[in-house]
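The instructor's notes for this session suggest beginning with a concrete chain rather than abstract definitions. Hand out the sequence below and ask the class to guess, before any prediction is shown, which regions might be ordered.
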Amino acid sequence: MIGFLKGTLVAKRPPSLTIEVGGVGYEVDAPMSTFYKLPEIGQPLTLVTHLAIREDAHVLYGFFSESERALFRNLLKVSNVGPRIALGVLSGMSVEAFYQCVREKNVASLTKLPGVGRKTAERLVLEMADRIPEKQDGTDAVAASPSAPASEAHDALLALGYRPAEAERMLKGLDAERLTTEELIREALKRVHINGGRA
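After discussion, reveal the predicted structure:
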C-alpha cells in the first residue's frame, strides 16, 4: 500500500496530477479541494494517498489532509458509491460541511453534488451516520497548461460527472482569460449551489 507521496509536482490537469518521486512519475487523481491548494509546477508536494486496485487498473488517489482521505475511504464503503462520486463529494464541499449535512439529514444539499441523486444522497445520510468522527482533523499533509484553462475546467467538470451541456452552462460567462483552471472550476461549482443544484 502506498501511504503518501513526497516529491515534485510536474503536471496538473484536473482531476489528475503527476508527482515525480525518485525519478518515477506517479499519476494521481485528486478532488478539487486538493487542486485548489496545489503549488506551482516544479514545486515540492506531499500528498497522503489511497490505492484502489481493480481488475483493469491500479488507481492512486491523493489528498492534502488525513481527514479528506478518511472521508474518501468511508464513502467507498457506502452502497453503490465509487471513487468518482467520492471525489465529487470532496470537490463540492468541505469534509466538515459533508458531515454536517449527514448530521442534519440534509439530503437537498447533498443532491447538489456532482453525480449524487436523491437516492444516493439518502443512502449517504443513512450509511454515513455512524461513521462521523467525534473530532475533525483538518491538518494538511503539507503546509496544466495555462493557455487553455476553460478547456481544462470543462474536462474536469466532465470527470466529476456533469454532462457536457451542463459543464458548458456552468462555465458560460466566466472570464477564462483572467481566471486559472482551478478558479474557473471553483466558480462553476459555486453556481450549482446558488442555483439549487441546477447548472
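Then share the key points. The chain has three domains: 4-63, 70-131, 149-194. The longest helix spans residues 181-194.
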